[in-house]
Amino acid sequence: MNAPRALGRRASFNVAAAVVAHTLWTSAAPALTYPLYAARWHLTTTVTTGMFAVYPVAVVLTLLLFGNLSDRMGRRAVILAGVASSLAGVGLFAVAPGVAWLYAGRAFMGIGVGLSASPGTAALVEFSAPGQQARANVVATAATAFGMGMAMLAGGALIQYAPWPLHLNFIVLFGVLAAVFAFAWFLPRPTARERANAAPWRPGALAVPRAIARVFATATAAVTAGYVLGALMLSLGGQIARDLIGSSNALVNGAVLALFAIATGTTAVFARRLPGPRAVQSGGVVAAAALALLLLAASEHALLPFLAASALAGAGYSLLFLGGLTLVNAHAPAAHRAGTLSTIYLVGYLAMGATALSLGVVATHWGLRLALEIGASGIAAVALAAAASALPDLAPALPGRQVPGET
User: Fold this and answer.
1) How far apart are CA 302 and CA 295, in angstroms?
2) Under 8 Å CB-to-CB from 131, ≥6 apart: which residues?
3) How far apart are CA 134 and CA 159, in angstroms?
């Protein structure tokens, strides 16, 4: 029996973008429901941020075991496994009768994203038109912004104005992920030559080529700074809007947090030609400014500074994430690309989980205001450290390596 006809390069590129978008949509989908779960089931902030933290822990474990799997088995098979796991997690949220189901759902979501994030990002580079690899970095960043924006806007509208506020949001997302899975089924399979040349896969065999150690360190610092900034906004943003800013409308709060995503995508488009080091430097400074505004908004219980902080945080995340991807994709050999990206994602998600859980504990025992102050100060320090490490001499590619955008 012949294999189904594979998608062409352009269609495969679009499917890879959808896979990347699903990672942030799936991650952010429960953000606006955490306060509802807390009110319905009388949960503490530690429990709700624990739900968030289960996700990056599952991502980290998956990356440790399977981060380089698509370098050996091909992008398609691993993407399909990842999207299927995300479907299972979203399905559990859609029908959850209690907290245990939510924790299990977050674990499946984390496994799904851990499996599909790296091959999805690598596939964007590999399905780019010749000489257009730089576009892959922009699309990857914009896709994460789109996924997060849909989680906030569509989720906020469904939660506030549609029936079944704890369920319908996830039913809609389940349908979207089912469509992504169906299209991903037709991604190109690895050729017989590629399968023959692939090294045997071993679990946990993540490795970074020694020649790109400096690039890897800077890219990891940048992506980690962006991820912990996102963790602060997604794990506590809804509660900050409700408890410190004073807004109780889920759609309004979702729209404010969606500014984070809109600014992420818009910044990625305008910053697409920035060299990687310059993007990281700019992102660190912008992220620190955003966190200062967020503290001001909480102190003054003011919506306008909160809006500005959300937009600036999105811009900072975009520049940090885009700069990190640009550096890695410019220097990492194709045979190690997914493994290198997986290692960066691993560090970023581990930091994300630790940030969410520790801030949840602080908020439960000492108050949301103190958690925000500690989180904002620490994340600003990480962002500025990433900016300081982004030296201009990281920009040129290694000998024989093509810089994205060059022909």
Assistant:
1) 10
2) 405, 406, 407
3) 37
Distance CA 172, CA 91 (A): 10
Q: Yes or no: say if 156 and 255 are a contact pair by the CB < 8 Å rule.
A: yes
Q: How many residues does the chain have?
A: 407
Q: How many CB atoms lie within 10 A of CB 173?
A: 26
d(CA 30, CA 102): 9
Domains of the chain by residue range: 9-189+212-394
> How far is CA 346 from each of CA 97, 252, 330, rounded to the nearest angstrom?
31, 33, 20
Residue 68 phi, psi (nearest 5)? -105, 10
Name residues whose C-beta falls within 8 Å of residue 288's C-beta, 6 or more positions apart in sequence.
316, 380, 383, 384
Tokens of 150: 């849909």
CATH ID of 9-189+212-394, from 1.20.1250.20, 1.10.287.40, 1.20.81.30, 3.40.50.2300: 1.20.1250.20
Assess contact for 95 and 43: CB atoms under 8 A: no
Distances (CA, A) of 234 to 79, 156, 334: 25, 13, 33
Averaged over successive runs of 10 residues, the pLDDT of the chain (407 residues) comes to 73 94 89 82 80 82 83 88 97 92 94 92 86 78 84 83 90 96 92 62 66 83 89 67 63 72 85 87 96 88 83 93 85 73 82 80 84 90 91 53 35
